[in-house]
Write a structure and sequence with these properties.
By secondary structure, the chain is of the alpha/beta class. The protein has a single domain, classed as Ribonuclease Z/Hydroxyacylglutathione hydrolase-like (Metallo-beta-lactamase, Chain A, 4-Layer Sandwich). 18% of the residues lie in helices and 29% in strands.
């Protein structure tokens, strides 16, 4: 069984067969995060940061990685900065590249967005019996149909519009990726990205199972 906790915005903790995977851990200053500060994260083996914008938790990821000894996963320039800030273990790569550890195979995939350091990215994480995709901040792109050589089971997609794709484009992404389960993210954190997730559910229809989580909620798959 895999447990998924939604931290609000684009943040998730995925527990899978003894591993704790933390994605885009924006905690401090996040108005919808159920946690008060980074000390509330008690376990993390891998911390994935999609890009350097404040609302995706690079600073928090560095703090947590230093405290827990977790591996921080990011595009190479951002991972190098984490090392300069005292993170002892990183996984750094670039778009199209893959890294295999004893726990998982990771692929860095493109994200159409902006950032100041390196380039934005998404992550495909292959855990053997589960493949997940955290899209980070991105627009829709047709090559989502070719992200990975195996079927993707679970996707986390932004639906907020304004800074990323909105519900309609995210539904188009579901049609390309063809996952079993999709969890929307990056919406309703602040006014410019206000969305009704029910619109996304209706647009996806029977293409995939949509699980809408409120910040602090969890789901099992």
């Amino acid at each position: 069984m895999t447990r998924i906790d939604f931290l609000g915005h684009s943040g998730f903790i995925v527990h899978h067969q003894g591993l704790a995977l933390l994605f885009d851990p924006w905690i401090e200053g996040n108005p919808v995060c159920p946690l008060k500060n980074t000390a509330d994260i008690s376990e993390a083996d891998y911390i994935f940061v999609s890009h350097d914008h404040d609302d995706h938790g690079f600073a928090e990821g560095v703090t947590i990685a230093r405290r827990l000894g977790a591996r921080l996963v990011a595009i190479t320039e951002l991972a190098r900065l984490a090392e300069e800030q005292g993170v002892s273990a990183t996984l750094r790569g670039n778009l199209g590249g893959s890294i295999t550890t004893p726990d998982l195979t990771l692929k860095f995939v493109r994200a159409y967005h902006s950032c100041a350091i390196g380039v934005p990215c998404g992550f495909v994480v292959d855990l053997g019996n589960l493949v997940l995709y955290h899209a980070g901040d991105t627009d829709f792109f047709s090559d989502m149909a070719f992200l990975y050589h195996k079927p993707i089971d679970l996707v986390f997609l932004p639906i907020g519009s304004c800074f990323t794709m909105g519900p309609r484009e995210a539904a188009m992404a579901v049609a390309k990726i063809q996952p079993r389960i999709v969890i929307p993210m990056h919406y309703n954190t602040f006014p410019p990205i206000k969305q009704d997730p029910r619109v996304f559910v209706e647009l996806v229809g029977n293409l995939a199972e949509v699980r809408v989580l409120a910040p602090g909620e969890r789901t099992d798959i």
